[in-house]
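Reply to dn_fold:

You asked what the input looked like. This is it:
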Amino acid sequence: MILNHLRRNVVAYLALTVALSTGTAYAAGLANGSVTNKKLAKNAVTSSKIKKKSVSASDLKTNAVTSGKVKNGSLSGSDLAGSSVTGSQVKNGSLTEADLEAGLLAGGVEISGGLEAGGTPALPPDIDNITPHVFGATAPGVAYVRWFVNRAHRQCTAGTAYAGLYLDGVPIPGTQVLMSPTAIALETAAMVPVTTGNHTVKAGVDCSTGDPTGGGDTFAEVWTVIVVPD
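and this is what came back:
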C-alpha cells in the first residue's frame, strides 16, 4: 500500500522538495538592494532591528524630530553647544536661567539710545576729581558703565561745559554730554572692554574754550557697572 502511495505521489513529493530547497537558497542569497520599501510590511522594522548609532542626522527628515519626541531632561549643555541648536528652534520663553549652563552663551550685551551730545571726553579734563568708582572684573569682558546725578550744573568763562566718563584715566568714547548752567539731572553711559582686575571709572568736566567757573554741585550721584565676561 505504501509503495503504491509513493508511486502515485512521487511527482508531488519531488515538487515539494524542490520548492523547499529553492526557497531556502533564495532567502539566504538576497541580492543587495533587492528588498525595497514596498516589500516591507508596515511597522516591520522596530528599534531592536536598528544597529546602535547607525542613524545619523543626514538620515532624518528636516523637522522630523519635534519637542514631543525628546525625553525630558535628556539634553545637557554639551548637546546645545556650537551650532547644533539655534534660537529659531527654541520656543520663545521656554528657557529659564536654570536651563543655561555657565559659559554656554557668548558674553556681551547691547544697549540702544542716544546721548545729548556724544563724542569723546577731553584729555585731560579741566576737572577730573568727580567722585571715582572702583570695580573689579574676574575675567576679561565688557563693562556697562553708567553715571547718573540727580542735579548738576557748570558754567565756563567761555564756551560750553561738557561732562564725560574715564576708565583708568582714559576717555570713554561716546560718553561726552552737555552740562547746563542751571541745575538739572545728568546721565551718561557706555560699553567698554575691560581686562581682569580692578578698574576705576570717574566723571570729568571740561570747557570747550574757557575755564570752569560757577556751579558744579552734584546731588544723588549713582554709579552702575555691570561686567559681562567674554
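The mean pLDDT is 76.
Hope that clears it up.
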